Amino acid sequence: MQIPKTQAEAKKLLDSGEITQADYEWCLQNLPASQDSSINVGGNAERNVLNTGRIEALYQVFINTEGATLTKDAFSKMLQEYLELVSREYVDIGLLTVKSMANTGGNPEEKLGEIFIPPTLQRFQPLDERKLHAKISDADDPFALDKAAIKEVDIQKHQRNQTVALEELLTQQDKLAIIGGAGSGKTTLLHWLAYTLAQANLGRVLPTPELQLDDLSAPPIPIVIPLRNYRVYVQACDAGLRVPHGGKSIFDFITWWLERQNDIGSASATFLKRLLKGGGCLLLLDGLDEVVDRRSRADVKKQVERLTKVQYPNNKVIVTAREAGYVGRAIFSDKFLRLDVRPLETQQIEALVANWYNRLKLKLSQSALLDGIARINAQHPQRPLISSPLMVTMVISVVWGKATLPKDRAKLYEACVEVILQSLHDYDDARADVEAWGTDWDWEKQREWLSAIAYTMHTGGENSASISEDRLREICRSLDVEPKPTTENIDAFIIATKERGGLFQERGGLLMFLHLTFQEFLTARKIAKDRDFNLIEAHVSDAWWREVVLLTYGFSKADHTPTAKRYLDWLIATPTGEPRNLRKLELAGTALLELEHTAADAHSRVADELIYSFENKTLKAPATLRAQVGTVLSALGDPRFNPNLAYLPTGPQLGLVEIPAGTFKMGSNKADDAAAWDDEMPQHNRYVDTYYLAKYPVTVRQWQAYHAHCNSQPKRERSLQGSNSAPVVYIDWHEANAYCQWLNTWLPTQTDVSPWLREKLSSGWQITLPTESQWEKAARGMQDARIFPWGNKIDKDRLNYGESGIGGRSVVGVFIATDLPWDVRDMVGNVWEWTQTSWQTSYETYDPALDKADSNRVLRGGAFNYDHRFVRCASRPNHPPDDGTALSGFGSRSPQRGSASGLC
C-alpha cells in the first residue's frame, strides 16, 4: 500500500479504495494539506499506517540472521509492539523540573515534541599544529604560525557543513559522537530521535524539523542504551549474580539491558539483537562519560568500536558524552564524526521559553523572564549560567512556583533546591514513607541533611562528586544534624534516592547530586548557616572550592547581612605577601561582582586592597592569579585611572615615568643571547636624551574615552572591546598616532591637568609613540645589556606570554618585578607595541632618523601567545602601519610610550 504524505494524496487513495474512511479521517487530522505545508507533531495519533515496503525489507534481512524463524506477520507484530513502546517511553519530556511543575498545578504530560528546541551541533576539527607548521611559507615571519591558524579557522567557519542542522544529522556519517556539557540536551536529543524514528516507522507524521534520511523509505529502527548502567551490570557480574550471558562486554551488557528494560512481551531482546545483526537500526548509546572509571571508559570505547565494526556493522550509531569525559583514550577513532552541542543562543532560549509559555500559565510576563535571564547571563558573558535546556527549564519551574526570578546565583539555586524538594513532598499515601525517608521530616529538614552530606562529600575532593552506597552510609552515620540519623532512616533515604531520585540520585550504581552545582551550593549554604569560616579556611586556594567560596558570600548576603559582612571582612583582612591572601582578595572582589546590588564603598575597598597587595614586590604570585586579579580590579572600578581625564593614570604626571639621559646597549650579541635574530645585531652603544614614558600601555577604557570625546568610530569596532583596564588592541599605527595628537591638543584645555604637565606641553614637548631606541632603553636600562627587563632568565610569572598559561590579554600593570630599571609595566608580553620607527633590516647601516611614509614599523614587546624569544628586550619584528587586524593579541603600543622630544 502506498503511504500518503499529504491530505491530497490521502483523498486519492480513499477514492481508489486503497484506504478506509477511518484512515482518511486520521490523515485529515495529522497530515499537511500539501507537500509544501509544514509538518506538525502527530503525537495524538491513534492509528498506524504501517509501511509494508519497509516491513518487507527489514524482514528479509532479519530472516537471514542466524536462528531467525519468525513468520512475516509475527515479525511485523513484534516490530510494531516495540515501536509503540519506544513512542510511549520517549513522548514525554521526563525532566524532574517538569514533574515539580505538575505537582504544583502544572500540566503533568508535557510532550517532548511541543517543547523540544533543536540544538546547534558544530563539527569539531581541532587544529593540528604540525599541519599548520607545514603551511608556513616564510620561516622568518614571526607571525606566520598565527596567520596560518587564523586562515585555517576562517576556512572551517566558512565550510558549508561546519554547523550541522538537526534535520541533516542522520545523513552525516554512520557513526557520530555528540559531545556537550551537563544539561546541554544530549539525552533529550537521543530521546527525540528515538520517538521521531519510531513514529516514522509506524507511518505517522514526523515532528518538526523533519529528519532527512539516506533512504527516505527506510528510517532506521531506534534502540536506546544508557551506558551509565554498564557499571551496574559489571558490578552484578562481579558479585556473582546471575547475569543472562555471563560476560562483561558491551555486547553482553546490551543483551542484559534489553531483556531488563524492554518488557514488551513477544518483542524480546533476542528479536532486537537480530534486528541489530541484520542492520538498519540506529543504536543510541547515551552517556559514555557516565562510565565513571576512566580505565573502564577507555575499554568501553574500544568495545563500542568493535561492536559497531564487527558484531553490528550495518547500523547507524550515535554516542553521547560530556566533554570532560571524552578525553584521552576514551576518544573514538576518525570513523566517528564528533559534533559538539553549542550553548543555547539568545534566539533558542527565547524559543524554548515561548514553548513553555504556550503550555503553562505563568504569572511573570514572558518578556520579564527573558530580561531576567539576559541579566543573569550578562554577569558572566563568557560562560552564561542559563544557556542549556536544563537550566532554562529549571528557571521556568522556579518562576512557576514563585512568580519571579531571583537576580543572584545563590538565590536562584536556593529557589531551585526548594522547588525540587517541595515537589517530592507532594505525594500520595503509597509513596509517603519513601519520600519522607521513613521519618516525619519536612523538606526543610531534608535540605539540612543534604547540605551536611554535600559538605562532607566536597571535602573529599573531585573524586567524591559521586560515591558508593557504603560511603554514603558512612557519611550519614557521621552527620552532625538533628535528629541524629538512624540506621532505619539512612536505609529509607537510600531507598528514596534509588527509587525516586531528585536532588540526590543514583547514576550508574553511584550516588551523587543532580548536578555538581547543587553540591557546591549546598556546601556553601552549610558554611553560611554555621557561620564558621574555619570550615573553608584551608580551601580558598583550591579551584575545586572556588564556587563554594563565592556562593557562601552570595547566600549569606541574602540570608543574614551581618554574616555576609563578617565573611567579606574575613576574605579581605589578611596580611599581604602570600599568593593565598591575594587569592582571597580576588575571591572577595569576584563575590561582590556576582551580586546585583552591592555598596560602592565595598567595591572601592576591595579594589584598593587588591592594588596594595599586588604592588607588594615581595609577593611571588603565579601569573594566572595576577591576571585574574587584574580582571576583577578592572570590573570593580580601577582607581589607578582618572575618569575626569579620559581615564589616564591618576596623579599629577598622569603616570609618566622619567627616563634620564644616557647611553645604553642596544641590540643583541649571539655570544650572550643564543635566541637573538640577525636583525638585532650588531649590539652597540646608543645615547638617548631624557624623555618620559607612560607607566602603563593605553587601555581599552582610554581608547573608548578618546572616541567618545571625538564623537568618532575606530576603524575596527572590536578595538573597543575588552576589559576596561586591558591594553587596547586591533588599532593600526596611524590610529595610534592620531590618539597621540589628540592628547596634545586636548590635555592643555583641561583644568584638572597639573601645572607640571601643562608647563611641559606649553614649552613644546609632544606626546608621540616612542622610537624603538626609547622603548628598548626603558625596557633594559643603562647598567647592562639584560635580555629581559629583570635579568637574563625568563620567569613565566613576571609577564604574560605563551608559557604563563593566561591565554589572552591581561589588565595592565599587574606584573610587578623586582630589579626593573624603571617603574614602567608590561614592557614585555601581553600585547605587541607600535613604535615610531621605520623598520630596518639590521643595525649595520641603521639610521635612527629614517621615517619613510607607509614603511613597515618596528614592533616591540611580544604578546600573550608568543614564546620567550619574542619577549626579549631586543626582539624587533615589523608590521605594515595600516594593518591592525593581522593577529590575535596584536596590539597598539601605547601612544603614551615615548616622545621624540622628550615627553611620553
Which value, in Å, is the CA radius of gyration?
33 Å
Helical content (DSSP H or I, runs of 4+): 40-55%
Number of strands: 19
State the low-pLDDT regions, or none. 35-49, 102-108, 425-434, 886-904
SS field, number of helical segments: 32
Mean pLDDT: 80
End-to-end separation = 86 Å
Strand content: 5-15%
The assigned structural class equals alpha+beta
Secondary structure: elements and pairs:
Layout: H1 7-15, H2 21-30, H3 52-63, H4 72-90, H5 96-103, H6 112-115, E1 121-123, H7 129-134, H8 144-157, E2 163-164, E3 175-179, H9 186-201, E4 221-226, H10 230-238, H11 250-261, H12 269-278, E5 281-286, H13 294-311, E6 316-321, E7 337-341, H14 346-359, H15 366-378, H16 389-402, H17 409-424, H18 432-435, H19 443-459, E8 466-467, H20 469-478, H21 487-499, E9 504-507, E10 510-513, H22 516-530, H23 534-537, H24 546-559, H25 561-572, H26 579-594, H27 600-614, H28 623-636, E11 641-642, E12 648-649, E13 656-659, E14 662-666, E15 684-688, E16 691-694, H29 700-710, H30 733-746, H31 755-762, H32 772-780, E17 833-838, E18 857-860, E19 878-879
Parallel strand pairs: 3-6, 3-7, 4-5, 5-6
Antiparallel strand pairs: 1-2, 1-7, 8-10, 9-10, 11-12, 13-16, 14-15, 17-18, 18-19
Helix pairs in contact: 1-2, 4-9, 5-16, 5-17, 11-12, 14-16, 16-17, 17-19, 17-24, 19-22, 20-21, 22-24, 24-25, 24-26, 26-27, 26-28, 27-28
